[in-house]
Amino acid sequence: MIKSDVLIIGAGAVGCALARELSKYNIKVTVVDKNDDVGGDASKSNSGLFSTSATMPVGTLECKLRTIAHSMILNICNDLDVPYIECGSIAPILYPDQLETAKGLTERAFQNGVYDYEILPAKDILDMEPTLNPEILGGIYSPRDRQANQFIFVSAMAENAAENGVEFVLDCKVTGMDVADGKIHAVHTTKGDFEATWVINAAGLHCDEISDMVDECDFKINPRKGEFYVFSHDTPVKVSHIISSVPSPKTRGVLVIPTVDNNMLVGPTADDVEDKTDVKTTAAGLASIKSQALNMIPGLHFEDTITQFVGVRPARTPEGYDIRFSEKVPGFIGISGVRSTGLTVSVGLATYIVHGMKEHGLELVRKEGWKRTRKGIARFAEKTDAEKDALIAADPLYGKIICRCEQVTESEILQAIHRPVGAKTLDAVKRRVRAGMGRCQSGFCGPHVIEILARELGIPEEDVRKRGEKAFMLDKN
Amino acid sequence: MKNTIICTVCPNGCEIEVNYTTREDAVLTGYTCKRGIPYAIDECFEPKRTFTSSVKITGTDRRMLPVRTTGPISKELLMKAADAVAAITLEVPVKCGDVIVENFLDTDVNLIAAMSL
Amino acid sequence: MKDLNCSVVVVGGGPAGLAAAISAKKNGAEKVIVIERENRLGGILKQCIHAGFGLQYFGEELTGPEYAEKFAVLAKEAGIEFLLDTTALEIKEKTLVCVNTEGIININFGALVLAMGCRERTRANLVIPGSRPAGIYSAGTAQKLINIFGHKVGKEVVILGSGDIGMIMARRLSLNGAKVKAVVEIMPYLAGLVRNKAQCLDDFNIPLLLSHTVVDITGVDRVESVTIAPVDENRRPIMEKAETITCDTLLLSVGLIPENELTRSANVELSAITKGAVVNQYKQTDKPYIFACGNVLHVNDLVDHVSHESEDAGKFAALYAAGKLEANTQLEVQPGEGVRYVCPQKMVCAEENVDLYFRTAAPGRGTTLTISDDTGVLVTKKLVRTTPGTIEKLTLPADKAKNATGKIVVRAEHKEEA
Prior knowledge:
The complex is a heterotrimer.
Chain A: E1 2-9, H1 13-22, E2 29-32, E3 49-50, H2 61-80, E4 84-85, E5 89-93, H3 96-111, E6 118-121, H4 122-128, E7 138-142, E8 146-148, H5 150-163, E9 167-169, E10 174-180, E11 183-189, E12 192-201, H6 207-213, E13 220-231, E14 242-243, E15 255-257, E16 265-267, E17 271-272, H7 283-296, E18 305-317, E19 322-325, E20 332-336, H8 342-359, H9 385-394, E21 401-403, E22 408-409, H10 410-418, H11 426-433, H12 446-457, E23 465-467, E24 471-472
Parallel strand pairs in A: 1-2, 1-12, 2-9, 5-14, 12-20
Antiparallel strand pairs in A: 3-8, 4-8, 5-7, 6-7, 10-11, 11-12, 13-16, 13-17, 13-18, 15-16, 19-20, 21-22, 23-24
Chain B: E1 2-6, E2 15-19, E3 27-29, H1 36-45, E4 48-49, E5 52-58, E6 64-69, E7 73-74, H2 78-86, E8 89-91, E9 99-101, E10 111-113
Parallel strand pairs in B: 5-8
Antiparallel strand pairs in B: 1-2, 2-3, 4-7, 5-6, 6-10, 9-10
Chain C: E1 2-11, H1 15-26, E2 32-35, E3 51-53, E4 62-63, H2 64-77, E5 81-83, E6 87-92, E7 95-100, E8 103-114, E9 118-120, H3 123-126, E10 136-138, H4 139-147, E11 156-160, H5 164-175, E12 179-184, H6 194-201, E13 208-209, E14 212-218, E15 225-230, E16 243-246, E17 249-252, E18 256-258, H7 261-265, E19 290-292, H8 303-321, E20 330-335, E21 339-343, E22 346-348, E23 354-360, E24 364-373, E25 376-386, E26 392-396, H9 398-403, E27 408-413, E28 416-417
Parallel strand pairs in C: 1-2, 1-8, 2-5, 8-19, 10-17, 11-12, 11-17, 12-13, 20-27
Antiparallel strand pairs in C: 3-4, 6-7, 7-8, 9-18, 14-15, 15-16, 20-22, 21-23, 23-26, 24-25, 24-27, 24-28
């Protein structure tokens, strides 16, 4: 039995932001997650956008939290050494019926306090983004929309929380709870029982299953599938702004996104599915993204994609953020309805919830010496020759390149494995340091990363996983 | 009897037609070099293959040593050959061409190392 | 940071790099350095443990490692210097920036030979729908895991693509006790060599499904099944005829792409068809001090061809470094009807034989191959049959090469389609 003051179920963006926020205080915090890595499900498979609340429904909790979070997030990224780009976004207006919609959106943005969201003439838009379809009628420009490395964002928050005393227990699925007399006596998991004064349901896609365990599930989570293409760095036509669609009967909202790592993302689709584990790309979905994206940017080279993936977002019925301090089971906090905005909102949500916990009687004493900052893993590929030389002088393994496509060195991989809340699988290594993220998709480095993981974790190579519990890379016998 | 054989002696992959009743009276067409003749006849009566594989080796970073037979062995023996090499573990040093198993599976050909480690 | 100077630096210690280095040395280059990122010479041949190499070059059938070792021994005897465990990062004018565990090394060269080989096309290049579980490998990665690391990759395997590595892996997996359920090829003909179908698929009763492709992959953790479907003449899957094959592993043998990232750093002109550098018969790129050979130039079928081509690259790199290769006007060399590409893409008119390597566009029988210039047909060769899987070679004799005018065009005409 692991006892803590607060148990957070789910190590996605929200769970990790909460863990970091709570790590400021003198309490014991534990985070459990069914996956082998932090970053959850939806938090890792998305487009890494930090957008303003311009187009949010006015007056909702989601809108309010997003406005707050958007103003906090750059400081947090700087503190945690999370790479981001201030690229801004452009929504090209392709059809006359989008003009009215665009005007409505600027009005809404004003009400939401986003004053720098405006419609520009076609020429000005094309000067800013010459890759756009020259037939556009104009476009909406929003300068403060950003893109960040979502994997590093979430793992940096987790790493920092762990440095400040939070315990992460991964590969740990919650299977049930002992609830009696308005109290959770035990949380059962695949790694034993946990006990805590506060239990926070930050399980995202699976929050309905967790809420159901305390009989508080009056909503439904509908898995909504989004497919994406990822482009190679060297594709000749690239955008420098996030290109989004103005809602219209003819568009469903495909985006073309420049990323901090220089790989364009194009997607997503939005298809409601039954199965939360349905991460299949489909011929129809990929074809639909392609035609919509080409409509906005005719020059895109789809033959230069290095991978396609699916993210499953937790859409909620009824819609909207729901943050509930249980009355039936005091101490249980349910978070549901956090959808694609969750990446940005996580940092605002964390502060909001911790404030709520104080109001509900949690006494929090601020820790002395809380570590605010975290340094990222120095990336060999991004350094000058002199800096590379210095890295190698300090650690010769910075001179041993394992992933040739992304020029990732053995030193970076070892750091990814051995840092707090480190990588235990190939995908977790890939998310932290990009080994296998390049054009050959781990064809060359895969066998070597398997070897390194086995050696560093002290396990047989046959036990090395791509991710999850049973995704073994090799034949086990 | 009439057989069409894809010659594998070299990468040209000639299609050789063999008309025969016995090994001696076979008539061949379609070959572009003489090396195809004995191959095509063997294919009709006793098909043979050069066997290549790798065996475990210790004492160096490369864990598997490539090996091959010095000549073709009966095709029927390939699976047996694979089982036989799976049981072998060697130690460095090994020179390319070193005999690992003499008279491999009683075939009169040797199993040799195909790399120096 | 360390500085080195040499006449010729070769990037890559595989068959192309070694042949180029030996040839550069033979042709007078004083100091030749080979950069190799692995700890042994031989490149991809180290994992190609099957036989079939060397028949043309050495006149005997060798395995990949044996072929590589012969060249490595020759290279060492020739006095070539090697930097192993060293990765080339960037070409800055006439300096190659490399790295190893001792730091950054700047190699100042007279001429540079690109010999980095190629990489495998991936599932993403083909846009195969489905989930992304463990158990999907490119054929070459599986080859490395099995032949070098001694691993097993799976028990029940489907292979997409009838490339040579895929067929060779079908045999290797069968001998290792795995069940290869099918080799699936989207084209109506084989992608690799016919001999590999005979000795790798037919010998093990592995079905080859032409005009089929993989349309779905199922499995959350590990591959559980793949769905295959026949394709119509436009290579579109006929979904009504799709069927599911249970398996735990999918291997992809769907083509190779020359690995030209380093080449890009030098702004060398690349061909959209071969994905390699545009060169003349000296294997010289539009940056006259950079040469290219082997699979980084164009994907070859036989290593024996690679050795021959690379010897040219090494020779002319040495001559360039010594100031003995003059710039001359060049003619364009182009693929005509029936030909997918020709390498070299440019030709200097000099009194010497010029070898043109090319692939046909489709298989056929009774093929007539020709080289023409603006005045008409210069060379004709007839073959019983040709396939795109095999590289063909035509030689333009010295007298005709010297006097050629206009555009050089290579054509292939089949009497019948295969």
